Amino acid sequence: MTRRDFNKTVGLSVAALACGLPGKVFAADKNELNILCWEGYNTDDVLGPFRKAHPKATVRAESGTSDPDMINKLRAGEVKVWDLINVNQPWARNQLMPEGLIKPLDKARFLPFFEKMSPEFKKPYPLAFADNGNLIGMPQRYGPFSFVVNTDKISRKTAEEQGWKLFLDPKMKGRYGILTYDNWNIIHMCLTGGLNPFKPLDAAGMETFKKTAIQIFGGSKMLSDDLVAMNTALINGEIDAYFTGGTYTASPARLDGLTNVLAITPQSGPVDGKGGVAWIELTSLVNNPTPSPLAEDFLEFVQKPEICKAVGFAEGTYNPVSQMGNPEVFKLWNAEELDAIQWGTLEEEMSRCLEYDVVASYDELIKIYSAAKRA
Questions:
Q1: CB count, 10 Å around CB of 258?
Q2: Residues 128-166: pLDDT tens digits?
Q3: Same structural domain, 267 and 157
Q4: Residues of the signal sequence (predicted)?
Q5: Is residue 269 one of the residues assigned to a domain?
Q6: Does residue 261 sit in the same domain as residue 286?
Q7: Which residue in 38, 145, 154, 272 has the fewest CB atoms around it within 10 Å?
């Protein structure tokens, strides 16, 4: 299962949840810290220095496979296990906080960090707050996520101007792959069909989605959930573009000097004029009945410049972090690393993106999508 393939567990039933508890449950202890997160926070480059600073503490981090999977762990009773949870932006405000699975952060301690963040987070970032103004999560990694092209074959100008319609062009048949991150594919196919994936679709919208999905799958040359395989095919000339991808997937090839591998954010789209989608991770304090005093210490620790860099450049994919607005953080990236994450156009591309959100008609769309994929 791939890191950004969020949909795999969206439809988990309560019965399935009951079977999903891990074999080993960590006992709550004041001298231990348990973190449920996306990869990066669980690396030695991040955890090692924190363990060194707290030599008597037991610090564990488990990497999740999807946002819903991690959230469902808390719903199944694992609020007693975890102290911090790191998921993407819609969940804290829309589900975790209303369900009592997380609790507010200390504003006096954490609000000052927003002042040094990049402009889009400095305001500060709205989804980091509950309706009542409580601070419920700290943003860090983020990026636009739309599609990727080989600019030796398709110019940036052409790709940005055509946007998702590029993949409906008959001349593109057999020239592109699909990175099968299913939930993202559904979002992107909605946008390709001129639909808003984050609003319920009527019968006409469902039919449009079906036709779009059939055409996108029918015109593709290859399907893979492996971003390395997709980048390799792009570099080798097997394909000229791939549907679903972004800075997160293009950055490894770009850091290797293959800067013709370029993540594209459409110039325009069907939802408020926007056609791109951006993911932003938030790390929140789990509402553990026996909380670890190390939880907020760790959340402050990952704001340190050298740890921000370690989080952003972890596990073979590279991403910007919100703290790069701080000169002390920014100076740790060299020119090649900044180019790998397309820093020069990042702010503009983010301005053309919708916030990633929960797909409103997911249950119906995944059935249509899966049938088109099989065909």
A1: 16
A2: 999 999 999 999 999 999 999 999 999 999 999 999 999
A3: yes
A4: 1-27
A5: yes
A6: no
A7: 272
What H or E segment, with its residue span, contains residue 167? none
Query: What CATH number is attached to the domain comprising 76?
Result: 3.40.190.10
Please write the tens of the pLDDT for every residue from 276-291. 999 999 999 999 999 9
- Reported as half-sphere exposure (CB side, CA atoms, 13 A), residue 113 has a value of 26
Do the beta carbons of residue 264 and residue 162 sit within 8 Å? no
149: domain range? 143-276+356-374
DSSP code per residue over 298-336: HHHHTTSHHHHHHHHEETTEE--BGGGGSHHHHTTS-HH
Report yes or no: 40 and 96 within 8 Å, Cβ to Cβ: no
Same domain, 75 and 158: no
CB 5 within 8 A of CB 183: yes
191 and 79 share a domain? Answer: no
Locate 343 and state its tokens.
């820093």
| Residue type at 219 in one-letter notation | G
